[in-house]
């Protein structure tokens, strides 16, 4: 197991170094955070000023909850480098509620639905026992496999783009990918640790020189805006509450898997009490987000890739990312500037980050017990998870409830792995959870430099 460049409690030397390391987490998450309110706004045909209000609230809420998740406040917060943001897991239920009851219905249903996650957090010591090493290894691998198509779509120019797959897009993505590889492999200290942000910066400069950057959004964005609590009001339709509660149940499974992956990447034991603190922050954070007029938040899996790739596991770095998100919510022009980064640039870096999660998952799978039972669990759960990931239309004729629960490959893979582990003879995970080493078989990242080298 390779040594982390910075451990969970380490503080990188100097504000410039810390800012660079924080910025790459921001770049990895910002697009997803902004995309969800934009999807809601487009689906509900909201006027531009209301979409801006949703985006600002999402950024501000994500920033505050990220800070709490990383720093911890009493029993709330997992105290790991965890970026929080609005989640696509709630888009299906949110749009269906919004079309009938508007944004107030989405926010009110989210507020009540968050109680499911808050209540579920108290059962995490029990739920943790359903995630022994084999199951955790499957979930980590599925996170990487599910995110990789996202990076591929970015590299190709974005889903729905008329120039999807154009040679120019792929060339830019390949250029950024090559730079990130070079920075990680041959860079020293802070250069290696900030490989993602340096690769994106070089790709951005290339696109700027080629005239591919559109600054229209920057010119139109307000410089300063304060999100207003209860800006849209709230409504509490029973059907909406049920739909969002189901979405929160699904998110509990995905977030548990993400926390386990984060534990492996940071070489930190993830026991039931720590899971409970993280899940409680997710639930309370979503309730707070609803009051701030933002869609629900959850833990971002893509930022696990940043940790795995760079070997920077410092929660203090990601706390600064939370401050940046908060600032982006108060100064929309900053968020608009980041959004000008072309998708192929993000795709080149994202492919490396998400593939690193797959690599970590494969290492974990390799350290699992070599038995027919273990092989069966791994094969079937990965196969089912990939079926939904690569062929999402597989569930197109299913009832809405089934699509909501099984629409994510991560959730399907996790549920199948947990189910097989319970049903097949010789159940794994009956030993005390604290006895299982964190990140067994996982090397943090191909980072050779030590913390002192920075």
TL;DR?
Residues 438-454 have a biased composition (Low complexity). 67% of the residues lie in helices and 1% in strands.
Give the topology:
Elements: H1 15-44, H2 48-71, E1 84-86, H3 91-121, H4 124-128, H5 133-155, H6 167-186, H7 190-193, H8 195-209, H9 216-220, H10 238-266, H11 272-291, E2 297-299, H12 302-310, H13 315-330, H14 332-339, H15 343-366, H16 372-390, H17 400-406, H18 409-423
Antiparallel strand pairs: 1-2
Helix pairs in contact: 1-2, 1-3, 1-13, 2-11, 2-13, 3-10, 3-11, 5-10, 5-15, 5-16, 5-18, 6-8, 6-15, 8-15, 10-12, 10-17, 10-18, 12-15, 13-14, 16-18
Parts with pLDDT < 50 across at least 5 consecutive residues: 431-454
Helices and strands: which structural class? mainly alpha
Give the oligomeric state.
Answer: single chain
Radius of gyration: 21 Å
Instruction: Give the proportion of residues in helices.
Output: 55-70%
Taking the sheet with the most strands, its summary is: 2 strands, antiparallel
Q: How many DSSP H or I helices?
A: 18
The total tally of domains equals 1
Principal-axes geometry comes out as globular
Strand/helix succession: HHEHHHHHHHHHEHHHHHHH
The termini sit apart by 20 Å
State the total count of DSSP E strands.
2
Spatially, the strands of the biggest sheet line up as 1-2
Mean of pLDDT: 90
Instruction: Indicate the proportion of strand residues.
Output: under 5%
